[in-house]
Amino acid sequence: MTAELTAASTTDPAVRAGREPPRLALVLGSGGVRSIAAVGVVDRLAREGVAPDLIVGCSSGALFGATIALGMTAEEALDAAMSLWSADLTQHRRWRAYPQMVAPRLAGFDEDFSLRDNRVIADRLRSAFGDARLESLAIPLRVAATDAITGRAVVLEQGSVVEALLASMAVPFLFPSVDVGGRRLVDGVISDPLPVAAAADAELVLTLGFEGTMPRRIDRASRLAAQATTALINNLMRARVEAARASGQRIVALELALERHVGLWETSALPYLLEAGRRSASLHLPRIADELLGQQACVAV
């Protein structure tokens, strides 16, 4: 398998002829800490001489996709994740939010409302990514967000990495929307939880998506709301992927074999999830090899 895949990436007839080789995209959905599995996938593929030349990410998928696009090693990405991702990101309350909910007219409720502020997230993102810009990364990165006014999917390909990630992770009600180019943007999961359409120009798409877990018990209002939103997002993700396949996109869906439940903020599980990504890539190597070799056969013809 190693020789077969290495040959596919180093003796490509398209490369020898001076043409662009077939494009391989990695599309990452929202999944909290589980999204770091993408780093393990890329690390495992690299051993076979295969690398994506496009990363597309939504929410936490965009965050961990950015570490790949920036050229971080698996160890560097793990270190960055340990400092970036933690439950205290959601602990910084906006005390004005409560009077805004109770007395909206008096306290001035508007579209900028949020229960938490995003200053801690912004500071950590700047520490990790600095002034990096999407168009200047080692691997092109497309970040999925949602237009808060129209509800339409937005794909960011240029501009500040930090700004794009803040927008893609801006969960409505929890975090404030982010102004990008005059548009108010929020979490990409609302419009496209696994943005395969943003990689429509790729010859082959590897996806790593995560369906939300439905609440086991409905014993409070928040769980009732979570039940509805989780079902909506899961169904939207399935529908989007099926539509992409129906349109002719070639998709290999990567899956994680996890022996236990992992919480969204369970940073202690990051090394375990990284290794799970490597295992998933190994499991799907035969299919990926077939697809890549099939592309090259078409180019040769």
Describe what this molecule looks like in 3D.
The chain is an alpha/beta fold and 301 residues long. Helices cover 43% and strands 13% of the residues. It has one domain: 3-Layer(aba) Sandwich (Cytosolic phospholipase A2 catalytic domain). It contains eleven helices and eight strands. Strands 1, 2, 3, 4, 5, 6, 7 and 8 form an eight-stranded mixed beta sheet that branches. α3 (37-46) packs across α11 and α8 packs antiparallel against α9.
How many angstroms separate the termini? 24 Å
* Helix segment tally: 11
Shape-level CATH architecture: 3-Layer(aba) Sandwich
Would you identify the CATH H-level superfamily?
Answer: Cytosolic phospholipase A2 catalytic domain
Structural class: alpha/beta
Helix coverage percent: 40-55%
Average pLDDT works out at 86
CATH class: Alpha Beta
- CATH topology name, in short, is Cytosolic phospholipase A2 catalytic domain
Task: Work out the strand percent.
Answer: 5-15%
The Rg value, from CA coordinates, equals 20 Å
**What is the number of E strands?**
8
| N-to-C order of helices and strands | HHEHEHHHHHEEHEEEHEH
Number of domains: 1
Low-confidence stretches: 1-19, 297-301
Shape: globular
Largest sheet: 8 strands, mixed
